[in-house]
Amino acid sequence: MQDILIVVDMQNDFISGALGTAEAQAIVPKVVEKVKGFTGRVIFTRDTHFENYLSTQEGRNLPVPHCMEGTEGWQIDAALPVLDAPVFDKPGFGSPALIEFLKGLPALERVEFIGLCTDICVITNAMMTKGALPEVPLSVRADCCAGVTPESHETALSAMKMCQIEII
Known about the structure:
With about 170 residues, the chain is an alpha/beta fold. The protein has helices at about 10-15, 20-35, 55-60, 95-105, 120-130, 150-160, and strands at about 1-10, 40-45, 85-90, 110-115, 140-145, 165. A six-stranded parallel beta sheet has the order 3-2-1-4-5-6. The radius of gyration is 15 Å and the shape is globular. The chain starts with a strand and ends with a strand.
């Protein structure tokens, strides 16, 4: 049986860079503690954009270049022990490659999500996982997530709870 922890987009640009927030900075120690203490398999996602970002739908709606591949802002926070964990680069909110990877794991018992941003990428990946693996218990650790705003963080948690994703 496998327990999986998915660490969503704990990147410098979302913590202290172009789209950083005090709430994101505040969760870093809790996320580090959770990753270091997790006894199952840890997987990371990494928001990844390119020079054409501003011409993409996301770039037109959020015209703030961030997580540009290869930059310091794109890097996962140095305090997190990525080591040999899989890292899924994703050019959008959700990662179809992550979902395919999860579907291929034998004896998947539970998937837990932590990271940034609750109201964009965490909810997207959690809902994609729920759709692809409806019988696998999913959870989101609220104190290891932060949203664009505290209000949108709470809204996303409520939406996921209504979709039978456990909020811890």
